Amino acid sequence: MTTIAYKDRVISYDSLMTAGSRICDRDFNKCIKKDGVVFFLCGTVADNDKFIDIWLGKAPYEEIDISAFVYEGASLFEVHCAEERMLTTQVDLMKAESIGSGSDHALTAMDLGLTAKEAVKMAALRDTNTGGRIRTFNLKP
Description:
By secondary structure, the protein is α+β, with helices and mostly antiparallel strands. The protein has one domain: 4-Layer Sandwich (Glutamine Phosphoribosylpyrophosphate, subunit 1, domain 1), CATH 3.60.20. It is built from 3 helices and 11 strands. The chain has helices at about 50-55, 105-110, 115-125, and strands spanning about 5, 10-15, 15-20, 20-25, 30-35, 35-45, 65-70, 75-80, 85-90, 95-100, 135-140. It has a 5-stranded antiparallel β-sheet with strand order 5-6-7-8-9. Helix 2 (about 105-110) crosses helix 3 (about 115-125). It is globular. The chain starts with a strand and ends with a strand.
């Protein structure tokens, strides 16, 4: 899957893309900007465009395998797609949060004082679906 971490107005994410046990790309950018909204996506890459179109109201909901952080306006949302709908929660910008297969490792690292970027690097040491280049995105103050 991936690891995406948020802390102190910084989102950090890895760039490893896999298909089963095969590594497809070590430098895949999991951040997509469209119509003024910034999406940080983990899950099935083939569902990325579907998720974005659903979020933007350009397509009806259909079952997809995506979890995401969505930065729209001044708000950050955590989104998980369930069988029948998107489960959306607004993130408290004063708290650390993480999604993806390495999220438990990243949350623990941030609880111990590491930054979002350091937390994703730590998750990459323990989670086989996290790795490659670690990127960051700063939320506007």
